[in-house]
Write a structure and sequence with these properties.
Layout lengths: L5 E4 L12 H13 L4 E4 L11 H15 L5 E4 L5 H14 L3 E5 L8 H12 L6 E5 L1 H4 L5 H8 L4 E6 L4 H10 L5 E4 L5 H6 L4 E4 L2 H16 L3 H18 L6 H9 L16 H10 L9
Parallel strand pairs: 1-2, 1-8, 2-3, 3-4, 4-5, 5-6, 6-7, 7-8
Amino acid sequence: MNFGQIVTAMVTPFNEQGDIDFEATRQLINHLIDNGSDALVIAGTTGESPTLTNGEKVELFQFTVEVAAGRIPIIAGTGSNNTRESIEQTKQAELAGVDGIMLVTPYYNKPCQEGLYQHFKTIAETTALPVMLYNIPGRSAVNMEPDTIIRLANVPNIVSIKEASGNLEAMADIIERAPEGFSLYSGDDGLTLPVLAIGGAGVVSVSAHVIGNEMQSMINNFKNGNLAQAAKEHRQLLPIIKAMFAAPNPSPVKAALNLQGVAVGGVRLPIIALPEDQIEALKLVLPVSEHVAF
């Protein structure tokens, strides 16, 4: 399964009542497809998955598949720290017609490496869909080690990993030892170019909501051998990327989209709206043609 170079972890638009705004979601999907996204992750961390009910997630999967209409792959975030629940949600996502699933490392309960292996293998064996693993020790409090990832890479439909450990040495080890066809994506926007340099496939991105085309340009320049230009673009994008993570995700990126005229509404508690001083700071680095109130 080829997910492309830039996989955008899509925010979930809400209306003024805090419910999913499906018309805004339609507009966002089309905006992302038109502006550099090769695939979308739905109901991931950036999509505020901890605050979405199971029913909302399934409805969102179905709606996104319908709107995307085969133009790009849709990846459903069905991972949790409950193996049985993840299996059930994966089955529902498959019925909704998604193209793949993303499974995050189980958070809070801190399983051992064998527990991680059995968790992911068990879920993968219940679906025909390609599986992207998601290692993010900063949020889950457990790191999936390269040996465990390599074991899982030999499960036939586990085809990729979003690596957000920030450990380039570990990523290089995974890329070196993984079977042919297994891909590694940066889970950190700011490490996209370094990860490409060690053989990564691309990035699962938050910042691509607002700089998707610019990130595509950087990646294409790197792949075409224009290394100096790619490095220059990387440096130019870093202030924007930094701004996207100046507060807990997805508060900054939702504010940025609203500033750019792509209405996505606010966030659900316990995430709070970006303070006014940080919105003003966003305006200084964001490539916006016109600021709009929200």
